[in-house]
Design a protein that fits this description.
This is Septin-9-like. It comes from Petromyzon marinus (Sea lamprey). InterPro entries: G_SEPTIN_dom (IPR030379), P-loop_NTPase (IPR027417). By secondary structure, the protein is an alpha/beta fold. The protein is built from 8 helices and 6 strands. Strands 2-3-1-4-5-6 form a 6-stranded mixed sheet, with helices on both faces. Helix 1 packs parallel to helix 8, helix 2 packs across helix 8 and helix 3 runs parallel beside helix 5.
Length: 257
């Protein structure tokens, strides 16, 4: 069997400890924001639930999840605070957006979100002028796409998301990609976090996503969310926390610049 080309930290608990250490630190404004974008049904809300599941140690229902019908369960700009049961100095928030639709979620709205102009619970489609709220600024951007959607993705859509990434980089915000539903390629009874990183097919899809977004391969992460079960799955948690802890490292670096 081919050797794994990327290593994943063995202990989920050590990655959770890192997240909690960030929460216990005093960062500017007390907020750390990771913005997720992508089409409906690709796993944005599911990733939020997977990460929260790994942190709290039981299945999390923090975010409503969409079916694969193109209808987005998220119609507002959600700023979901993770690990809500703890008192903390810095709140880590995953900003969940409406599933991307051309003409509704455009570059101007995206720019406003990055700058912190769009408030929590904003209904997408409303045309309102907002002022900047510093604690709502985005510190890290994550594009989420599923294995099946990437294969069938319209080139114009990928180019639009690439433009979003270019705008974020001009603002010195790191851009990452998540490839979800990797269990489509490797069934649950066959995969571990190590075998995922031995799969040539998954690596090629990650390279395809990175090329489309203008991201190096090290900025792309495969993930398997809790799609059909609420039973805790250690390997699923490892993949999600490996990605998420990297995003938080990047967000902390942005805040400290």
């Amino acid at each position: 069997m081919a050797e794994a080309w990327r290593r994943v930290q063995e202990s989920v608990s050590s990655m959770v400890d890192f997240i909690r250490a960030v929460e216990d630190s005093e960062l500017a404004l007390g907020k750390l924001n990771v913005l997720m974008i992508g089409k409906s049904g690709n796993g944005k809300s599911s990733f939020l639930n997977t990460v929260d599941t790994a942190i709290i140690g039981r299945y999390s229902f923090r975010a409503m999840e969409a079916q694969n019908d193109g209808y987005s369960q998220t119609i507002q700009l959600k700023m979901e605070e993770l690990d809500q049961e703890r008192i903390k100095k810095t709140s880590i928030r995953l900003m969940d957006t409406v599933g991307w639709v051309s003409g509704v979620y455009n570059i101007d709205l995206f720019s406003s979100i990055l700058c912190g102009k769009v408030p929590k619970d904003y209904y997408f489609g409303n045309l309102v002028n907002f002022s900047v709220v510093p604690e709502n600024r985005v510190h890290c951007l994550v594009y989420v796409v599923s294995v099946d959607a990437l294969i069938n993705m319209d080139r114009d859509e990928l180019e639009t998301f690439a433009k979003f990434g270019q705008l974020a980089r001009r603002m010195e915000i790191n851009v990452f990609g998540i490839l979800t539903k990797v269990d489509f390629v490797m069934p649950d009874d066959e995969w571990t976090s190590d075998t995922i990183y031995r799969s040539r097919q998954i690596k090629q899809m990650m390279e395809m996503l990175g090329d489309s977004l203008g991201c190096p391969l090290k900025y792309i992460f495969p993930v398997s969310n809790y799609a059909d079960s609420t039973i805790l799955h250690e390997e699923r948690n490892r993949l999600a926390m490996h990605a998420f802890s990297t995003f938080i490292h990047a967000a902390v670096s942005y805040v400290k610049r």
